[in-house]
């Protein structure tokens, strides 16, 4: 039974530099927020086990560097992803605008099956800040336009909504997993021409 | 520290730096990237030949530049850069400078405006400071040649990965490496690093410390090219790059200055060359700004420069010099030394000996040139200072040439042994305490124990020292007790007079350098733990002089020091010792002198062999290998050399008595 199987979900977090990708991951996995302001090099991942309904899933969350120069490093990790989290900073219009290109970039580099329905989740981070520039309505509209991507507003600093967002990530990834599993359950049968079984002889054949 | 940017003649300084680096195992491989470079023409030229780019996709030296003065550094930087930084400076307290990205659409617009319109466009209200930061990063990425050129990036990364170095030392080396950059690149780099440094001063507000900045801007500054696949970065490499750039940002204010010791040495070389050039118009001796062409601008220049560069290298220079000296003294038929132990062609020791044999030996010994000549100049110094009235009448009559000279004592090219003999025979100097060195006989077998197979400890020693770099900028005053042999190497190499003294007329060596000789050679009190200190303990056999006639003895350090280095003496403590370990040995002056000289030569040659055997291992002592003529390495076979050495070591002690007899008679 598939549900008894331990599931590993690979999740990639993408977004402009400084939007809070690392902080989101840390908040979700370690429930900690560090005031340390540190740019990420390359990519790194943390894992966390989650109970989704009756299934135990292990989420492998890949945090990537937002610096454009490190993108060549990141793409290697895109492959085999089950879900992609696009993060923007609600105080930075630029980061909202680049969501589109991040999404496209991911689909090109990861080359998933059925890209139309690949599960994305958009997170608007830093809602604790006052100088908000992107209204929820605007972001929501964009997400609906893109095949109804779920949208969450979070604060990695205060831990608002983070858990919920990642749970959705896990659920969507799992759903996709099932679909693919179902496809995999019925692969094209390979017909092997049956050979006539030779009658057994006594002793060895030589 | 001296202002490097303001120097008129940077070539020789760069040459020295490159040489020091090379001796520390950091070799500049211009060939490796030459293809890469040629295959990477400016995109602007290939894609759109008609439209002339002004800022993006252009080599740095083709941009409109402006002169800027920071501290005492007169920098010539692209106008674009200044405009960029002025814009950013206005919002220097913004959080995430250079980290947060600007709007890609706005950046593109700005780029077009800069290319088509004024170089310093007015910003529209929609432009943010992050747009400018991104624009700057884009600028770096699009430079035809990366800000830090590929060969130097390799050097930096090589240096970074040397584990034996402290981080302080590494920084010194980084800063030296960067001086090898072409001027435009160096100026721009200084300007950029200083600006980034300025940003870190506002870290409280903008949260960008050196580490963050290095991660964000580092990949632009060091556009690392992995062989074959340009611009592909591995994560390991990315980490190294950011660490290096971080160190550079922190030390940004030190970039652009060169250590006094390096500068002095290079000036001496320069002066010498000028004299040389004036005297020898017939000899084609291409001294061009070798390093500048070959390394710094190596990427920009075509491969045709490769040959040129070589001809300007110090090594070549020394080879040339030595050859010339040999020729001269060969024609100089006034002198003869007949009673000395030298190797002849067959590898045997011959007791009656002509000049030719001697030179033959020198040719054979890998680093013989360096040492021999250094001791010869040394002796001359001594002679002059002792002001020996009878000098001119000495049997060999060689003093003629010596006294002649405004022209250096380079006219006289003698083996150390000859030099010592001459010294000894000069009336009044028989009891000269400055002369002989005493080495216990019991030490000789160990010292001379070299066979075809290089003793393990030697190869090890070579490797050890090679991995620990002696930076040229870290003058001997910075040597710490914890330093290993290398510190000695550094201190000696930093002192120009030892090495340069080899070919310098004694008169040309500044007196302060001479006096600093002793002090500089001093602070190397160190134990190289990896060595068997007891076995290699040569120093124990040195006896320090009691006499106070320092002036006469100082130059002898030149002989001692390389010896110590090459023999990898474990525990040596020059620091507390008088300048030169000399003891008068009554009656047996000459023999012990021979012993010393012979040993020193031997040490050198055997060292050379050791080095041959461990090919990758970089050179050890700066003084011995730094100026070892390249030719001698390549020309004579290692095997043969080894045999010579062995032969010498076997027969050495036997030959002594006969010499003594001759001396006595």
TrEMBL record, chain A:
Subcellular location field: Late endosome membrane
Major subcellular site: membrane
GO biological process: one example: endosome to lysosome transport
Alphabetical list of SUPFAM superfamilies matching this protein: P-loop containing nucleoside triphosphate hydrolases
Alphabetized UniProt keyword annotations: GTP-binding, Lipoprotein, Nucleotide-binding, Prenylation
One Pfam family from the record: Ras
Example of a GO cellular component annotation carried by this entry: lysosome
UniProt name for this protein: Uncharacterized protein
From TrEMBL, chain B:
UniProt record, GO biological process: signal transduction
PANTHER family found in the cross-reference section: RHO GTPASE ACTIVATING PROTEIN 11A (PTHR15670), RHO GTPASE-ACTIVATING PROTEIN 11A (PTHR15670:SF4)
Single GO MF descriptor: GTPase activator activity
Record domain Rho-GAP: where: 68-256
Biased composition, class Polar residues, residue ranges: 36-50, 362-371, 404-413, 617-626, 648-665
Gene3D superfamilies (alphabetical): Rho GTPase activation protein
Organism: Adineta ricciae
Region (Disordered): 31-50, 362-413, 465-484, 613-665
Listed name of the protein: Rho-GAP domain-containing protein
């Amino acid at each position: 039974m598939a549900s008894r199987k331990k599931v590993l979900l690979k999740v990639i977090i993408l977004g402009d530099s400084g939007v809070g990708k690392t902080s989101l991951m840390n908040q979700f996995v370690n429930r900690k927020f560090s005031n340390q302001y540190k740019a990420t090099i390359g990519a790194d991942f943390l894992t966390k086990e989650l109970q989704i309904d009756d299934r135990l899933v292990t989420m492998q969350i890949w945090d990537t560097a937002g610096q454009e120069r490190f993108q060549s490093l990141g793409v290697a990790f895109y492959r085999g992803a089950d879900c992609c989290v696009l993060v923007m900073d609600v105080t930075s219009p630029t980061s909202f605008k680049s969501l589109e290109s991040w999404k496209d970039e991911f689909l090109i580099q990861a080359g998933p099956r059925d890209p139309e329905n690949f599960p994305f989740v958009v997170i608007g981070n830093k809602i604790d800040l006052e100088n908000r520039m992107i209204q929820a309505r605007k972001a929501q509209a964009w997400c609906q336009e893109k095949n109804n991507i779920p949208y969450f507003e979070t604060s990695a600093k205060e831990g608002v909504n983070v858990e919920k967002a990642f749970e959705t990530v896990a659920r969507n990834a799992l759903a996709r997993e099932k679909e693919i599993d179902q496809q995999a359950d019925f692969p094209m049968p390979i017909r092997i021409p049956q050979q006539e079984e030779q009658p057994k002889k006594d002793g060895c054949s030589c | 520290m001296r202002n490097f940017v303001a120097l008129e003649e940077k070539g020789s300084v760069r040459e020295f730096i490159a040489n020091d680096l090379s001796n520390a195992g950091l070799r500049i491989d211009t060939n490796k990237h030459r293809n890469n470079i040629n295959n990477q023409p400016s995109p602007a030229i290939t894609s759109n030949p008609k439209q002339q780019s002004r800022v993006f996709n252009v080599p740095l030296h083709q941009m409109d530049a402006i002169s800027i003065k920071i501290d005492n550094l007169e920098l010539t930087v692209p106008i674009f850069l200044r405009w960029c930084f002025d814009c950013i400076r206005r919002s220097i307290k913004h959080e995430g400078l250079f980290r947060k990205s600007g709007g890609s659409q706005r950046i593109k617009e700005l780029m077009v405006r800069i290319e088509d319109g004024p170089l310093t466009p007015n910003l529209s209200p929609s432009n943010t400071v992050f747009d400018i930061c991104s624009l700057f990063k884009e600028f770096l990425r699009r430079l035809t040649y990366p800000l830090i050129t590929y060969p130097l990036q390799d050097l930096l990364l090589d240096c970074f990965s040397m584990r034996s170095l402290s981080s302080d030392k590494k920084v010194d080396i980084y800063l030296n490496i960067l001086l090898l950059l072409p001027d435009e690149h160096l100026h721009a780099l200084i300007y950029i690093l200083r600006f980034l440094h300025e940003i870190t001063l506002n870290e409280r507000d903008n949260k960008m410390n050196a580490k963050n900045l290095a991660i964000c801007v580092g990949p632009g500054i060091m556009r690392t090219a992995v062989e074959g696949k340009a611009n592909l970065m591995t994560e390991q490499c990315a980490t190294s790059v950011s660490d290096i750039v971080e160190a550079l940002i922190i030390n940004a204010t030190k970039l652009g200055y060169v250590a006094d010791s390096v500068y002095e040495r290079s000036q001496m070389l320069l002066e010498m060359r000028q004299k040389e050039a004036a005297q020898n118009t017939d000899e084609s001796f291409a001294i061009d700004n070798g390093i500048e062409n070959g390394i710094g601008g190596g990427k920009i220049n075509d491969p045709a420069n490769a040959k040129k560069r070589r001809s300007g290298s110090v090594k070549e220079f020394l080879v040339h010099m030595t050859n010339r000296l040999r020729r001269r003294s060969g024609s100089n038929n006034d002198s003869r030394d007949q009673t000395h132990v030298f190797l002849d062609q067959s590898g045997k020791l011959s007791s009656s000996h002509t000049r030719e044999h001697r030179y033959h030996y020198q040719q054979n010994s890998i680093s013989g040139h360096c040492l021999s000549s250094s001791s010869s100049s040394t002796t001359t110094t001594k002679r002059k200072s002792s002001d020996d009235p009878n000098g001119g009448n000495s049997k060999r009559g060689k003093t003629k040439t010596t006294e002649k000279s405004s022209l250096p004592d380079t006219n006289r090219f003698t083996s150390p042994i000859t030099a010592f003999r001459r010294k000894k025979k000069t009336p009044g100097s028989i009891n000269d305490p400055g002369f002989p060195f005493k080495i216990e006989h019991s030490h000789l077998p160990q010292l001379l124990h070299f066979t075809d197979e290089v003793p393990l400890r030697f190869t090890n020693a070579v490797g050890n020292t090679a991995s620990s770099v002696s930076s040229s900028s870290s003058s001997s005053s910075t040597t710490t007790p914890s330093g290993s042999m290398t510190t000695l190497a550094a201190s000696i190499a930093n002192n120009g007079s030892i090495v340069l003294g080899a070919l310098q007329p004694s008169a040309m060596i500044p007196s302060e350098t001479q006096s600093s000789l002793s002090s500089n050679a001093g602070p190397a009190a160190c134990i190289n733990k990896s060595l068997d200190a007891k076995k290699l303990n040569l120093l124990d056999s040195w006896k320090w002089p009691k006499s106070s006639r320092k002036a006469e003895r100082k130059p002898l350090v030149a002989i001692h020091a390389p010896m110590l280095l090459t023999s990898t003496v474990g525990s040596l403590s020059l620091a507390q010792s008088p300048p030169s370990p000399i003891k008068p040995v009554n009656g047996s002056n000459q023999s012990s002198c021979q012993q010393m000289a012979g040993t020193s030569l031997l040490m050198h040659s055997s060292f050379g062999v050791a080095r041959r055997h461990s090919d990758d291992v970089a050179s050890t002592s700066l003084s011995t290998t730094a100026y070892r003529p390249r030719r001698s390495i390549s020309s004579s076979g290692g095997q043969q050399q080894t045999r010579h050495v062995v032969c010498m070591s076997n027969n050495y002690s036997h030959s002594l008595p006969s010499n003594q007899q001759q001396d006595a008679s």
